[in-house]
Design goal:
Elements: H1 3-15, H2 22-37, H3 41-60, H4 81-96, H5 101-113, H6 119-138, H7 202-214, H8 224-232, H9 241-254, H10 261-289, H11 294-299, H12 330-345, E1 353-356, E2 364-367, H13 370-383, H14 389-409
Antiparallel strand pairs: 1-2
Helix pairs in contact: 1-2, 2-3, 2-4, 2-9, 3-4, 3-6, 3-9, 3-10, 4-5, 4-6, 8-13, 9-10, 9-12, 10-12, 10-14, 12-13, 12-14, 13-14
Length: 414
């Protein structure tokens, strides 16, 4: 699908009548905006966190059951929480995706039209505007706009740019994202994993063999289901990205429950706070460690000094390798953070669900728990040939710690 088709699809989806669930409606709009805008995973997670903390604070400020995420002026009395949530979501998304302003405002008008006119509605609109402005101001200078070159290195074991499937050499993506101010953590290095395996170690050789023989495009030991898993969780450019996929998971479960507006708002706020911080932790680790990707390591295995590795100059991964260092896995980090939060806000880990995929539109996969899905998502990066086992496990562990920290420190019950 080209950019024109994506833009048309975005307009069509956003223009659909709302469901009278402000949290899920704005989440749907945000995911469509991420797709059509080609938003990369870290900015996508940040945008979703800003959106859902604003919606949460707008609703919770009118009936304080939990701690607010940010400080605001006193909320008005007897204001419509639905109008506040609608307006907060509208203002945040217009600020983050100005190219979609018209369709976002049309969606908001449809949502507001379903709320009874009167002073309560007007006060809710005003409060939602104020909360959105506060959250946008809070993130204005958070480091997400900072840029710097990262040429990589030709030293064995170090990341370097590689040729993409399209024949292009893409520069390193967001090398300073690890210094973005977190939403819950103290800093991006708070849960930084230890160093990856040394190139001459036996562990490195084993991990190299596994990715080389299960993640290759050709002559792979991967079976049909493992290939499906790799493609199902791929979520590259033009999709809702890995954090967006976990919002799709949350939407599937949320639709089966009759939670209140405030609890629904908290669920999605915590989910996206945790994943936004998981991105920061992972990107901090990636660019501190600067570890090379399998596409480089396997082709140049004759330079790694390890007697157990074997070079294959023609080796290519099953799925596209993203343009940033390998260690640790961002997808694993997102997934473990999401699973930790969803198990808590939906009361237990063992919640059966099924979910689809942007990359395989006709495929749905079923899981018995959030942790099972997170584990599979981590394996998918090995089956796809873009990560090693240690990068996956380190990502899962730091992501889990990030999710648990967000739950312990943010939006706690009063």
């Amino acid at each position: 699908m080209n950019l024109l088709q994506l833009s048309i699809a975005a307009t069509v989806v956003i223009s659909v009548l709302p469901s009278q669930d402000q949290v899920l409606d704005w989440n749907d709009v945000a995911l469509t905006a991420i797709r059509s805008g080609g938003t990369a995973p870290p900015p996508a997670s940040r945008n979703l966190a800003i959106l859902h903390t604003a919606i949460f604070d707008a609703v919770n400020g009118l009936d304080a059951r939990y701690e607010q995420y940010a400080e605001h002026a006193p909320a008005p009395r007897d204001a419509s929480a639905e109008a506040a949530a609608t307006t907060a979501g509208r203002d945040v998304l217009v600020a983050l995706y100005p190219a979609l302003r018209t369709t976002i405002e049309q969606r908001a008008a449809q949502m507001l039209a379903q709320i009874e006119d009167g002073e309560r509605k007007l006060r809710g609109v005003s409060w939602g505007q104020a909360v959105a402005a506060d959250l946008l101001a809070l993130r204005l200078n958070d480091g997400s706009a900072n840029t710097a070159p990262y040429p990589g290195s030709t030293e064995p074991g170090r990341w370097r740019p590689h040729i993409s499937f399209g024949g292009q050499v893409r520069p390193a993506l967001l090398p300073l994202w690890g210094s973005v101010r977190p939403f819950a953590l103290r800093s991006g290095k708070q849960f930084r994993p230890s160093e990856p395996p040394a190139l001459r170690s036996f562990q490195y050789a084993v991990e190299q063999w596994v990715t080389q023989h299960f993640g290759g495009r050709e002559k792979s030991l991967r079976n049909a289901e493992q290939t499906e898993i790799a493609r199902f969780w791929a979520y590259g450019p033009g999709t809702v990205t890995p954090p967006g996929h976990w919002n799709q998971v949350a939407r599937e479960v949320a639709r089966t429950r009759k939670d209140s507006l405030i609890d629904r708002a908290r669920q999605f706020a915590l989910l996206n706070i945790a994943m936004a911080d998981a991105a920061i932790v992972s990107w901090d680790c990636k660019y501190v460690m600067g570890y090379w990707r399998p596409i480089t390591a396997i082709q140049l295995a004759n330079t790694d000094g390890n007697i157990f590795t074997q070079a294959d100059r023609k080796w290519m991964p099953l799925i596209e390798t993203p343009p940033f260092p390998e260690y640790s896995s961002g997808h694993s980090s997102f997934s473990a953070a999401a699973a930790a939060v969803l198990a808590d806000v939906f009361d237990r880990d063992g919640v059966p669900f099924s979910v689809g995929s942007d990359d395989l539109p006709n495929v749905r996969r079923s899981y018995s728990s959030f942790s099972e899905a997170a584990w599979e998502s981590g394996l998918s990066r090995i089956y796809g040939g873009i990560h090693y086992w240690s990068g996956n496990i380190s990502g899962l562990y730091s992501g889990y710690l990030t999710g648990r920290y967000a739950l312990r420190t943010k939006l706690r019950r009063l």
